[in-house]
Write a structure and sequence with these properties.
Layout lengths: L2 H14 L9 E3 L6 E5 L5 E6 L12 H14 L14 H14 L3 E5 L2 H15 L4 E5 L4 H8 L6 E4 L4 H10 L6 E6 L1 E2 L4 E2 L2 H11 L2 E5 L14 H4 L8 E5 L9 E5 L1 H10 L1 H4 L6 H14 L3 H20 L12 E4 L3 H15 L1 E2 L2 E2 L10 E4 L7 H17 L10
Parallel strand pairs: 3-14, 5-6, 5-7, 7-10, 10-11
Antiparallel strand pairs: 1-2, 2-3, 4-12, 8-9, 11-12, 13-16, 15-16
Helix pairs in contact: 2-11, 3-11, 4-5, 6-7, 12-14, 13-14
């Protein structure tokens, strides 16, 4: 077997399809976000503005978060010492979980190394806890949810059309009423920025005796009066059985979690290999995350400024006639529709205007829907927004993207 040849062929396919991913070396500097420095391959540097980060509120630079992390670092050192089951549970982890359970109005919370692992580990483990569990999954659920459902053994799964409550009802009604059921969906789907129908799905769950599993990764910290997510904003949080969230986006640190009843959390803690056999978050990370969660419970002004920045950018881009995808959330995707053109546009924004936005290609989005995904934050000031809009106007007018051609 020519293993090297197989690797070369696999990589060449990505190049041929225009979706080979190139990492751009950037250096964030404390207190200066969203400004950063691009470390070019030739050794030179260029000042840039980050427009595609998921540190939605700039909390990764917030003094409250940094102070908590400095304090924990000086007190405990770098690592956690191992898994939570053996040597890695600390007062910092317990404080963080207490903040998270309070945030979501649940009895308990459980912290994982990432929201991806939290989804994967929890969804796959639920089949162990509920033999014969049927999972109903939105067609556009995140890869971590898909993987968790796939890995959950022999239990059945049903895929309902994206946000199609009528289709979900048909699937629920066709199954054995006595079978255990769970509906897995998201509050905000990150690539289009559209909202899941939380209330309608909770209504169906109650009607058919199903559990609910909501991924709030792109909403926690940013929606609701205390940052509990879209479910909190819509008054539905109490109706959800399990909520998944991240500490690495709006909270600006690292890690993921679930929040649920004490019994549910205890069962996942006791059975999920993705939790049992994984080294826990370093105390310094847990301390920073707890400080961020605690702070955002009261910082409505930051949430308001975030929404205002997103609305302003959408208005300005729409005024240029650009094909933005707007479902009312903070995410601002601009449809390009071709992987090569998307990458070239991203490269030109970086090289010519110091604007860093990575192209979004397959498999993150379906082929033919490639896009640039802008994530404005409260610290993207009017001057930065103006610079981005002018750059997009100049490039779009010179690039016939909608005719599947690109010419500078």
């Amino acid at each position: 077997m020519d293993y090297d040849g197989k690797i070369d062929a696999a990589l060449q396919r990505l190049h041929d399809e225009g979706r080979y991913r190139v990492f751009i070396d950037i250096e964030r500097r404390r207190g200066n976000f969203p400004h950063a420095v691009w470390k070019r391959p030739d050794g030179s540097e260029k000042d840039i503005v980050i427009w595609c980060g998921n540190d939605y509120l700039g909390m990764g630079q917030h003094p409250v978060v940094l102070a908590a992390m400095h304090e924990a670092l000086e007190a405990t050192g770098a690592g956690s010492g191992g898994t939570r089951n053996i040597s890695g549970t600390t007062v910092y982890h317990k404080r963080l979980e207490a903040e998270l359970s309070d945030l979501h109005g649940k009895e308990a919370a459980l912290v994982f190394s990432s929201a991806y692992i939290a989804n994967d580990a929890t969804l796959s483990t639920l089949r162990t806890i509920f033999p014969g569990l049927i999972i109903y999954s939105d067609a556009l659920n995140h890869a971590s949810m898909i993987e968790g459902i796939r890995r959950g053994g022999s239990g059945a799964k049903r895929i309902f059309r994206h946000n199609d409550v009528a289709h979900l009802r048909e699937l629920l009604a066709a199954d054995d009423p006595a079978a255990p059921k769970l509906i897995a969906f998201e509050s905000i789907y990150s690539m289009d920025g559209d909202f899941g129908p939380i209330e309608e799905i909770c209504d169906l769950a109650e009607e058919f005796g199903a559990l609910t599993y909501l991924d709030e990764v792109h909403a926690v910290g940013m929606y609701g009066p205390r940052g509990g997510g879209v479910a909190e904003r819509d008054g539905q949080m109490h109706r959800l059985d399990i909520i998944n969230g991240t500490l690495g986006k709006a909270f600006g640190v690292f890690g993921g979690y679930i929040a649920a009843s004490a019994k549910m959390v205890d069962a996942i803690r006791s059975y999920a290999p993705g939790f049992i056999f994984t080294t826990s978050l370093p105390p310094v990370v847990a301390a920073g995350a707890a400080a961020s969660v605690r702070h955002l419970k009261t910082d409505q002004d930051l949430r308001d400024r975030h929404q205002a920045a997103a609305a302003t950018l959408k208005l300005r881009l729409r005024g240029l006639g650009l094909p933005i995808i707007d479902h009312g959330s903070h995410i601002v995707p601009v449809h390009v529709g071709d992987p090569v053109h998307c990458k070239l546009l991203s490269d030109m924004l970086l090289e010519n205007f110091g604007i860093y936005v990575q192209p979004i290609n397959y498999p993150t989005v379906p082929k033919g829907t490639e896009r640039l995904r802008f994530t404005p934050s409260p610290v993207h000031d009017p001057g930065m927004i103006d610079g981005l809009v002018k750059a997009m106007d100049r490039l779009w007018s010179h690039c016939a993207l909608n005719r599947a051609e690109l010419s500078a």
